[in-house]
Automatic annotation (TrEMBL):
InterPro entries recorded: TatA/B/E, TatA/E
Keywords: Cell membrane, Membrane, Protein transport, Translocation, Transmembrane, Transmembrane helix, Transport
Oligomer status and interactors: Forms a complex with TatC.
Cellular compartments per GO CC: TAT protein transport complex
Pfam families on file: TatA_B_E
Family, similarity comment: Belongs to the TatA/E family.
This protein's name: Sec-independent protein translocase protein TatA
Location of this chain's protein in the cell: Cell membrane
Residue ranges with Basic and acidic residues bias: 51-65
Main localization of the protein described in the UniProt heading: membrane
GO molecular function, one term: protein transmembrane transporter activity
Bilayer topology term: Single-pass membrane protein
Region annotation Disordered: where it falls in the sequence: 43-65
Amino acid sequence: MFSNIGIPGLILILILALIIFGPKKLPEIGRAFGQTLREFKKSTSSLLEDEPPKSEKDSSQVDKI
């Protein structure tokens, strides 16, 4: 997703964020972004863990059809 940005692009984004939000607000925004990302990862991993594993019986039934 972010593989095309590169170092100069990241620096530009950081400078723009610093100008728009200011140095006092930037740590709060970063903290909120980190918490949001952590919650997203936790919910996606729990969805993947809830998925039941495929058994051999299921695949044999598909082969018969």
